[in-house]
Amino acid sequence: MEADITIMEEAAIAAGNVIMKYYRKGQQVTNSAEVRNKGVNNPLTKADLEADTLLHKMLTTARPDYGWLSEETTDNPDRLEKNRVWVVDPIDGTKEFIIGLPQFAVSIGLIEDGKPIAACVRNPATDETFLAVLGSGATLNGQPIVTTKRTQLTGSTCLASRSETKRGDWDCFKSEFAITTMGSIAYKLSLVAAGRFDISFTLTPKNEWDFCAGALLVTEAGGEITHKDGSKCRYNKKNPLIRSLLASNGTLHESLLQRLKDIPYGPDRHGPTCTMKEEKNEKI
Predict the structure, then answer these.
(1) Which portions of the chain are predicted below pLDDT 70?
(2) What is the C-alpha separation between 235 and 67, in angstroms, rounded?
(3) Where do runs of H (alpha helix) occur along the chain?
């Protein structure tokens, strides 16, 4: 694993350097970034593609027997037969990158038999590199990190999605949590792992590449990651989409699960209420 984590870190730093050629702090990227939409509210830039190409070359050249799953690469079902798989998002937080917010990250997870065994999240705009190896803890720029020790859910510091907050999904939590909005779920999870915030959660669909690396950072730092129903995350599934993700410092997790038990999933909501009973929809 020492060799693999070194490969991951080198690849993330190199990809970050590519991305920073286009990034303009506090300003919109220029036309050279070639911003376009690949779906509704889902932008794509030249930086995403260049970083993805570089990551694919570096990681698969170093480990040709590993599978590959990336947001910006056409999925190859051969990965389902692989023991180990790279799970990659070249820029998690593309919308923030485009408008000049330093809230994006290169995310690389390494999966073995459906579980993350190594992780690297690199925010090149803040020069932060988060690393974790299963059973060996987590670090930020080489220094060990741990989650907070808070035990009271009310008043917890909480990272919320910028887009979800704009939709009003978080309105009913504002009196309970000290909410900070931020892009990039990979970066949010990294900050929970580093003990800067107590919790973060989303009840809207996410893909494995969004949270795979960040999830291992949280658990290796002493926190906990589950879905809304309390089940553990599994990776390298045929369909990489999940409906919810809850991250906490560990001591708050049971309280968080209970608080969100009757809250509908994001797509199922019919308004800002946080007391509606969840509808019986087929799970993704």
Answers:
(1) 267-284
(2) 12
(3) 2-20, 46-62, 94-99, 162-167, 185-193, 208-220, 253-260
Report the predicted TM-score, pTM, of the whole model to 2 decimal places: 0.93
List all residues 6 or more positions away from 45 whose beta carbon is below 8 Å from its beta carbon: 22, 29, 33, 34, 35, 36, 91, 94, 97, 98
- Cβ-count burial of 198 within 10 angstroms (0-12 exposed, 13-18 middle, 19+ buried)? buried
d(CA 242, CA 227): 8
Centroid of chain to Cα 206: 9
Which of these, 233, 126, 251, lies nearest to 195 by C-alpha position? 251
What is the four-CA torsion angle of 225, 228, 233, 239, rounded to 10 degrees?
-140
* Tens digit of each residue's pLDDT (9 = 90 or more) over 207-253: 999 999 999 999 999 999 999 999 999 999 999 999 999 999 999 99
Q: What is the chain's length?
A: 284
Residue ranges and CATH numbers for the domains of the chain are 2-144 (3.30.540.10), 157-268 (3.40.190.80)
CA 38, CA 28: separation in Å to the nearest integer?
A: 19
Between CA 199 and CA 177 the distance in angstroms is 9
User: Which strands make up the sheet holding 224-226, listed edge to edge?
Assistant: 178-182, 157-161, 199-202, 245-248, 224-226
In contact, 80 and 238? CB cutoff 8 Å: yes
- Note whether 48 and 37 are within 8 A (CB): no
Residues 88/167, Cβ–Cβ less than 8 Å: no
Which conformational region is residue 63 in: left (phi greater than 0), alpha (psi within -120 to 50 degrees), or beta? beta
Pairwise CA distance, residues 106 & 10, whole Å: 12
Tokens of 240: 């990489």
Q: Are 262 and 278 in contact (CB under 8 A)?
A: yes
Query: Cβ–Cβ contacts within 10 Å for residue 75, how many?
Result: 14
